[in-house]
Amino acid sequence: MTARKIGILGAGSWGTALAIQAARTGCDVLLWGHHPQHMDVLAGDRENKRYLPGAAFPANLSVTADLREASRFSDLLLIAVPSHAFKATLEQLKPFAADNIKIAWATKGFNPDNGSLLHELVTSLFSAETPVAVLSGPTFAHEVAAELPTAITIASPQDNFSNELTHLFHSNRFRTYTSTDIIGVEVGGAVKNVMAIAAGIADGLGFGANTRAALITRGLTEIIRLGLRLGGHQETFMGLAGLGDLILTCTDNQSRNRRLGIALGRGQALEPAMREIGQEVEGVLAAKETYLLAQKHGIDMPITEQAFKVLYEDLSPIAAVQNLLSRELKSESTGQ
Ligand SMILES: NC(=O)C1=CN([C@@H]2O[C@H](COP(=O)(O)OP(=O)(O)OC[C@H]3O[C@@H](n4cnc5c(N)ncnc54)[C@H](OP(=O)(O)O)[C@@H]3O)[C@@H](O)[C@H]2O)C=CC1
Ligand SMILES: O=C(CO)COP(=O)(O)O
User: Fold this and answer.
1) Cα 48 from chain centroid?
2) Ligand 2 pocket, residue 14 CB under 6 Å
3) Which ligand is nearest to the CA of 250?
4) Residues near 326 by beta carbon (within 8 Å), at least 6 away in sequence
5) Which residues participate in catalysis according to the annotation?
6) Nearest CA residue ID for atom 29, ligand 1
7) What is the ipTM for the molecules in this complex?
8) Phi, psi angles (nearest 5°) of residue 48
């Protein structure tokens, strides 16, 4: 049965865009953000001028800075905080959560504590029976807010829950597909951010379309290697939450990850480049977590490794490219 109420946790660009989308389909939505003064401003403006300017709130979208109020509003909660805040948000939520709580998220990343997937974190803090789902795909917040046609994947091991969410978010400008491959969808969404940084670096260095296409294609190979090892399905990586999102973020400057890479490729240092973007750049944490996961599982992920070294070991972008190009020659189709 479709819920008509949803609490959305995380009032950045994506949480706000999803709140507006759910409100447009007729749901009552309560959007929670952790910063009381910011939420007062949102309530007064009926718009999130900081993170999603130009998108007016529908009348059935309310805001709060009270997590208890948000968790009591509905048994269905959608989390859209950055990955570094995901665990803390779940922990704060837990004492208030209804016994029959259903938890979805649209965060793209790993648990920074140990590199686990976010569904593992949710089921460890709640219970193995808690319905869980992830929303992911090629979905820039501003385009969703502007009602430009968009498609997204909603993955859950529980068919009822993914079906409920698809009906809740679907409109004639926002098409929702179901999947049961939560692992594949999570890996695709987290690791494409690393590849977007790499593609940005190549463009910032002044390389061309050939380089970008090579990075996207070989980046997809890395995502598939890791994703299959973690239990994802091959077809997911060729879908919206895999190749779709990879193409989007590697090729369009709306992507904050790509823009960070461009700045690094042009010689800017990491900290000022991040400050200038002024929003979450998930690929920075994901590069470290993906690199460590690849090492742990003995998986060859050379683009990830070079991105990690640029971000964490002060390797110059041009040296990283040289390292990639000077690797031993091999067959394109070898597993490693
Ligand atoms: N933007 C997009 O187009 C898309 C984003 N995503 C994913 O959505 C997630 C959120 O990103 P996005 O909305 O873009 O990020 P933004 O940079 O737009 O906003 C980040 C939000 O997170 C809040 N925040 C920061 N720390 C905490 C915390 N400890 N607890 C609660 N809230 C916190 C910020 O609040 P404040 O500023 O008040 O501290 C702000 O509202 C990411 O995983 C991203 O990959 C997925 C698809 C599309
Ligand atoms: O995930 C996104 C679109 O699908 C947003 O990408 P960025 O975080 O790189 O802006």
Assistant:
1) 20
2) no
3) 2
4) none
5) 192
6) 85
7) 0.99
8) -100, 85
